[in-house]
């Protein structure tokens, strides 16, 4: 007796629930047809799909391709229905849609886009205005001129500074170059071979000697040494700037916010673009080539140093602090040692990127193997070009295997 | 139902002559955006906002909620609570790895929130050692170099420092392992290195944040026993965090039970097990056997309960055939005595009979109830 009311209660709640579920799915299908205009009941993740599909449909209609229009329209709806079903329980999506604020901005965006597409495809002055962006030659010319003026100004007034930098870079380069060129080739074979053998045994020794043998036999020896000197000098500058910068970035979120876009810029800006200013500042020769190489190759080292320090586990930091470490002790005794594998990877990446700049650097007097490639290209000598290219590859192999990230672990 | 009664800290059983080494005074810790925390702190202290509302409406986590306790010299003080109850947060206040939102922490009667960076480093390097659940050894250093770390950080080199390192390593039984790397050691051994590191610094106070929780039961038990012995022989004051009541009872002189950022009960193992203040604590102590830490004095009844012998007992004459015990005899021993004799046991202190333990008292105590 006592259980009866409870039973009917469960029944009466169960039935409407099922019915409303059925109605909901029909309603839902209607929502798909109407699209963004019924957004209150729509998850907004489909907005972009609707926008693209309906825009295309409207355009097709205006080209009087009505069948294609219908195909696009119905295909987009079917896709949404399929996606909704794949996404799992309808209830979840519905809850998501209801929880969201009524998306007026999205609806307005949808209507605006469709209306603009219609207008742009009609004839008349408005359509002309809409189909091309109102560009201004004047703005671009003045902007470029002001950059030119800045470069000129800096060239004239920063002369002393640039000359000092040039002198230091040249000293570094010449030092490295003379160390390399003054060593007789058997010494280089022996030293590099020994390093390879320590690192990777007989197999690596053979590989390294084959690479060196190619460079020597094909007459690229002195060019390879020049290129190596340039790469090593760039690496020195990169390490001197990159590791402290990486530490700074890891320590200060503010500097990270500033530096992150700058690093992106350094990596994505085509290097030819800053070759000319580099020449303007440092005149033609090896120093501007070195600077251009550093600009291109620095970012991975900074990023990986920063990453390595950030990845030091919290409990290690806590232990250091709990035993009374100063910030400097924390850096030297815990953070840098634990970041070392990451920093090594960064150095390896930087070397590889330096090598990939060899040809570009040769354009402004970097010399070395890059010049051989350039010369071959200018004189349409396929064979010479490929052989010189191979020489660069072998240099890269040597550097990668010897200075590389080190596959053995130290811990 | 938020019916955890606010535990008024009972100061009656304090040894007044010995000032506490570590003292927490109404410590609060609220995690969240600083401006929001500042805004709602007043309301939280005045109990206008509860923890749930602080989390839901203001996005703040109240991890420690008005905690006060004192740790006396050479005492092992355990804080026991489930995970998420705020134990780690609380213990990190003692060496100021975390700053309190409100309240004060005194070490040797000196407020540590007043210390500047240098004095704080001194305190951490010399006075307070810490051992972590996840050990937190430096992977690129050998056992010896890891143990040497606190001395190195405070600039001590030379023979004395190395002697201290070797002594600490031999105390924890790791002599001969100096040149191994942490990755070559088992979990238990790594934790011994962690302990040696804290001992090498020769700190008076040890903070132990669930040091044995990640270990196998057997190793854990062994380390617990060793730790207690060590702390007692070296006279260290220890604040020991655990989520395991068995461990707290085995190690602690006193135990504080923590729940949702509050301390619900503080007392000796016997007090906690025999008289839990509420159902929550009672749930924990259910099934804990009191035989190894409840003593005769706690369960004995006055001689007047045995009218036939009362007069003799009150005159400190033990009736014929009754076994005799000191007041500190553990329940386990009393049980053995009782099985060997059919008479009640007389409890004496300095030759005077102070009470009697009969089969009934023993059964009640084993059943886990306080005498009535
Ligand atoms: N840095 C933090 N920021 C925000 N909340 C935290 C932080 N540290 C701990 N908490 C929260 O405080 C509560 C207590 O955590 P904790 O002290 O680690 O508990 P226990 O050590 O007892 O497991 C938890 O709810 C946790 O989520
Ligand atoms: Mg914890």
TrEMBL record, chain A:
Gene3D superfamilies assigned to the protein according to its UniProt record, in alphabetical order: MetI-like (1.10.3720.10)
Keywords on record: Cell membrane, Membrane, Transmembrane, Transmembrane helix, Transport
Cross-referenced PROSITE patterns: ABC_TM1
Domain ABC transmembrane type-1: 224-403
Keyword Transmembrane among UniProt keywords: yes
Family: Belongs to the binding-protein-dependent transport system permease family.
Membrane-spanning intervals of the chain: 68-87, 107-128, 178-197, 204-222, 228-250, 262-284, 351-374, 380-399
Identification of the protein by name: ABC transporter permease subunit
Organism: Shinella curvata
Superkingdom, taxonomy of origin: Bacteria
InterPro entries named in the record: MetI-like, MetI-like_sf
Membrane topology: Multi-pass membrane protein
Localisation per UniProt entry: Cell membrane
UniProtKB/TrEMBL annotation, chain B:
Compartments where located: Cell inner membrane
Molecular function terms, GO-annotated: ATP binding
Domain ABC transporter span(s) in chain numbering: 46-285
Topology in the lipid bilayer: Peripheral membrane protein
EC numbers on record: 7.6.2.9
Family as reported in the entry's similarity comment: Belongs to the ABC transporter superfamily.
Protein name, entry field: Quaternary amine transport ATP-binding protein
Species name: Shinella curvata
